[in-house]
Amino acid sequence: MFSSRLDWNIGANPQSTLLDRKRREGAAIFDLTESNPTRAGFDYPLELMVSLADPAAMRYDPSPRGFAPAREAVSHYYAERGREVTPVQILLTASTSEAYSYLFKLLADPGDEILTPRPSYPLFEFLAALESVRVRQYPLRYDGVWHIDFAALESAVTARTRAIVVVNPNNPTGSFLKRDEWDRLAALGLPILADEVFSDYAFDTAAAAPEHVLIFSMSGLSKIAGLPQMKLGWIAANGPGQEAALERLELIADTYLSVSTPVQIALPRLLISSGTVRAQIGERTRANLDGLRAAARGSALEVLNVEGGWYAVVRVPSTRTEEEWSLHLLAERDVLVQPGFFFDFETEAFLVLSLLTPPATFDEGLRRILASL
């Protein structure tokens, strides 16, 4: 009766089942998975809301690529970061997820393949399946720093490979691509889909992307302004073939016209005002990471190297599986963490902690984890 594209297992997993039971019983959960900045205790300036009250939002005048002032604001956002991206190179979307769907439509026919990193956020398979596109994963390896396994990546390339996804910095490993990795990716000659939603939250310097290959950079208000509810993202195209790509993306966008008028009109002021929220998030994530590293020193908890983003990966003893660790911490310590297999880690035993977590919750949750080791 229904499309095979929706043939997913949507049942509750053991952790979510246990979490629901604990909450029904009234347990106070120390949630170290919080990824929603609007629930993480940040102070949002009033002008963020006032910017949505512009009377011009009452007039509907659709523009497939997005309103010119909004795209100019995105161009200015890049200029402040030392990158030249003209408004002509920018197309607005309702989210980064929608940006992926547009790019899969642009680049792939049904049955074609997209390369995606592993470990990474568990979203690509769902987005690709909805476009009848197949995902082939390439692994990231850890030897004190994260890096791409290029032998595995190159062996994953087939005649049906249409693009390579990079998440920079990666979620959840927090790793940026290095200069030589960008060069080796460019040498493959495939379009690169660069997810940069966490790029403003860097603990180390990031290498610049090359300009001699077609790259589609994606970002949006969800992370850079801490405003996931505003539903505005974008694609910035750069490199050979960008004009033809943008013409076709405009046709796709014209079919949906999904970005709301009020948020487009507000975008210039939202980007200006969001600096205070971004600063708070940066201070929080850095402080939590410093505290995590200090607390783990001399313990059985290993904090893997992280270069940016909102997450930290920790290695725990393999005396339990990741699922057993996460269930034990929730059942016995009221601490919620994400096991590594949620992100397709290949080996045991890793846990993923959100550095966005309010400090008091993070510190107590960490204390309880350490007490369990």
Describe this structure in words.
- The protein has 373 residues and is an alpha/beta fold.
- The chain folds into two domains: 4-43 and 276-372, Alpha-Beta Complex (Aspartate Aminotransferase, domain 1); 47-273, Aspartate Aminotransferase, domain 2 (3-Layer(aba) Sandwich).
- The protein has helices at residues 14-24, 46-50, 68-79, 96-107, 124-130, 150-156, 179-187, 221-224, 242-256, 261-273, 275-296, 322-333, 359-372; strands at 30-31, 90-93, 113-118, 134-142, 146-148, 161-167, 192-195, 215-220, 233-238, 302-303, 311-315, 335-336, 338-339, 350-354.
- An eight-stranded mixed sheet has the order 2-9-8-7-6-3-4-5, sandwiched between helices. A four-stranded antiparallel sheet has the order 10-11-14-13. A two-stranded parallel sheet has the order 1-12.
- Helix 5 links the parallel strand 3 (113-118) and strand 4.
- It is globular.
- The N and C termini lie far apart (49 Å).
- The mean pLDDT is 95.
Entry summary:
The chain is α/β, with parallel strands linked by helices. Helices cover 38% and strands 17% of the residues.
